[in-house]
Amino acid sequence: MAPSTSADAELPAIIAHRGNAFEFPENTLEALSSAVDLGLRHLEFDVQLTADLVPVLMHDADLARVAGRLQCVHDLDSATLATIPVGEVARLGEIHADLRAPTLARIVESLSGWPGTTAFVEVKRASLRRFGREAVLTRIAEVLAPALDRCVLISFDLVSVRILRAMTGARIGWVLSAYDEAARAEAASLTPEFLFANHERLPAAPGSLWSGPWEWALYEVRDLETALACQARGARYVETMDVRGLLAAYAGHARS
User: Fold this and answer.
1) CB 179 within 8 A of CB 197
2) How is residue 180 annotated by DSSP?
3) What residue ranges in the chain does DSSP mark as E strands?
4) Is residue 26 within 8 Å of 43, Cβ to Cβ?
5) Distances 139 to 49, 58, 104, 105, 238 between C-alpha atoms, Å
6) Neighbour count for residue 255 (Cβ, 10 Å)
7) Could you report the per-residue pLDDT of 66-80, keeping only the tens digit for each?
8) C-alpha distances in angstroms, 52 versus 86, 106, 130, 196?
9) Comparing C-alpha atoms, which of 225, 232, 195 is closest to residue 210?
10) What pTM did the predictor assign?
């Protein structure tokens, strides 16, 4: 299926939220590869650190949801984590039961084979709390070094986003916890390339999003109607886990 991207002026560009996470276990190489195969050129994924400070793709700090195990990623070394399936059997059944969490280094290798692809790399606050900003940000920056020009480094943690810009010179994005005047002032001071927000947590009243030197990317988008509503408010990017479904809706809209 041909992708709909920001080149289609009437539609916002699609970011694959944790990859094609509707059909594959989230944050796996297979989920990201599927999104690329479907034509997307914007990927988002989450990074945590293992006990031996290896960056891996994982949203939660624990393995309960993706592996059905009451263990914490931060307590496991990378070799042990590599033996644990993260196939989200409770959600997807046995079809992808044996998939593993990739290291960030493995994804950097894959990016070299995905020309024109931008990766939005989210640094998770749980790792920052456990290991401290210096250790986490330094390790992630080291691993991403060969692909920094293809990456946007994002986090809910404002201080970390500032440090990452100074440390790497890479593009940055701040993920908002709140959409209020205090956050607006922080955004104006930070001047990131991107602001991310959950569209469901924005004020209900219609109105344009804050203007500034950034692009807006709104997440938890599941359908065409929501994507168009986000675009009408000023978002040029929307994030979805249902990559195939939203692409199909885009294609139908283009034909109408």
Assistant:
1) yes
2) S
3) 13-17, 42-49, 55-57, 118-123, 151-155, 171-175, 194-198, 215-219, 237-240
4) no
5) 9, 15, 10, 11, 29
6) 6
7) 999 999 999 999 999
8) 19, 17, 12, 30
9) 195
10) 0.95
